[in-house]
Amino acid sequence: MRWTVHLEGGPRRVNHAAVCVGEYIFSFGGYCTGDDYRFSESIDVHVLNIQTLRWTLLPQRRDENGTILKYPEVPFQRYGHTAVAHKDKIYIWGGRNDESLCNVLYCFDPKTLSWSRPPVIGAIPGARDGHSACVIDNCMYIFGGFVEEINEFSCDVHALNFNTMEWRYIQTFGVAPSFRDFHTAEHIHGRMYIFGGRGDKHSPYHSQEEIYCPEIVYLDLKTKVWHRPSTTGKVPVGRRSHSMCKHIYIHMCHTHHERLNFSCINLPTVIYNNLIYVFGGYNGLLDQHFNDLYTFDPKANCWNLVKPHGKPPTPRRRQVGIVKNQRLFLFGGTSPYPHATAQEQQAFLIDNNDTNVLDFEPSLKTLSILAVVEHRIDTTWLPRELRLEIKAMTQPNSISRPINHAG
Fold it and tell me: Of 29, 135, 267, 305, which is most buried by a Cβ count within 10 Å?
């Protein structure tokens, strides 16, 4: 396991949302300190080619007269929202700008690069930001967040059925996780795991007396019962605005070959153990940003602090982490200014524009490329394909703006 890539020059974004479809990561919205988010400008969409590691800013959508589409035809620029992929579409929900929140469901088609507003029925959740969303079977489950209309943190569960496009409030049993926002959610074995987030001593109200729960909790989607497993190992400090994802450790029984994969694979010769990964985040009581990496084994209920080889990303919060095949792509977020004193770090924060890659099983070719770069070996004698790979892994990004081919 090794951090293999660190590239500057990507989109400078905080509290954005992203998903991977095919060989591309689509990143939606977010903000950058100093920009104006009071008005309903259309959301921006950046796309990362995970093979070339190059970013592209998609052109704004226009109508038949060439006029740029605005809200409500397309989502307004926002932060604290969620994005999920279901089949061949991407769904954006929630979030806010500096003036208002949104609870309208938007659908983005990666093939046509177009937006739509699917009609929905049922009990639509109140507008919020800082919630979590994950897809289990044919439903998107929403948990928590901060609902500004009632000025309260939430610990409710809502589900959108993609087959019927109906929203439902999910009645749960047992003791729910505490009211919180900017936590994370992941699903494994028919369970929705919740970790981290910011709450309040006087929850659900927001009194500025923050709490950070270090427990991991899961909802059994069959029984709708909340569980608090008794865990062992090194438990992460409570935090918010971190990244959480899962991977599958695969053992090929007939070849004794081991590899990592982030997709659900159903092969008769495979024995697998799912792990949850947690990276980074921020604890306001400690005033500390993190760049640590933990695993949680939901079968053994065990936490483990892992230390990959290579140079890790700087401590940060509000970044995005996306997994695809054997790699974790992590980009954006906010970090404390490296030369500030401990007292100054909260006032001196940097919005990052870097892209980092963690390779869970780097190939011999990848390790060789890293050695070539580290020792500054002459590459002119290498095949063109290898030189291009080295260039992609080392040359800073310059976001391209293509011609609007989709109309």
Answer: 29
> What pLDDT digit, counting tens, does each position of 77-112 carry?
999 999 999 999 999 999 999 889 999 999 999 999
> Is the full-model pTM beyond 0.85?
yes
Helix (H, G, I), strand (E, B) or coil at 396: coil
Q: In this predicted model, what pLDDT tens digit does every residue of 281-313 receive, in sequence order?
A: 999 999 999 999 999 999 999 999 999 999 999
Give the pLDDT confidence score for residue 257 in this predicted structure: 36
What φ, ψ does residue 248 adopt, rounded to 5°?
A: -115, 120
Answer whether 27's CB lies under 8 Å from 16's CB: yes
Instruction: Please state, in angstroms and rounded to a whole number, the distance separating the CA atoms of residues 133 and 38.
Output: 25
Tokens describing residue 268: 């008769």
Amino acid at residue number 69: L
The CATH code of the domain that includes 43 is: 2.120.10.80
- Inside any domain, residue 63: yes
**Paired strand residues for 25:** 20, 48
* Percent of the chain predicted with pLDDT > 90: 67
**Mean pLDDT confidence for 169-179:** 96
CA-to-CA distance for 195 and 185, rounded, in angstroms?
7
H-run or E-run covering 122 = strand 121-122
Q: CB 267: neighbour CB atoms within 10 A? A: 10
Query: What pLDDT, in 10s, does the model give residues 251-276?
Result: 444 433 333 333 333 333 334 458 89
Q: What angle do CA 188, 356, 84 make, to 5 degrees?
A: 40
- Residue 306, sorted as left (phi over 0), alpha (psi -120 to 50) or beta, turns out to be beta
* 398 within a domain of the structure (yes/no): no
Alpha-carbon distance 119 to 136, whole Å?
A: 21
- 298, part of any domain: yes
Q: What is the mean pLDDT of residues 389-397?
A: 84
CA 299/CA 272 separation, integer angstroms: 11
In a domain, residue 274? The reply is yes
Is-contact 181 240, C-beta < 8 A? yes
Using alpha carbons only, give the angle 289, 290, 293 rounded to the nearest 5 degrees: 165
Please give the residue range of the domain that contains residue 26.
11-255+269-329
Question: What CA–CA distances, in Å, run from 279 to 96, 137, 329, 356?
Answer: 24, 26, 12, 12
Which DSSP category does 154 fall into? Answer: B
User: How does DSSP classify residue 372?
Assistant: H
Q: How many domains is the chain built from?
A: 1
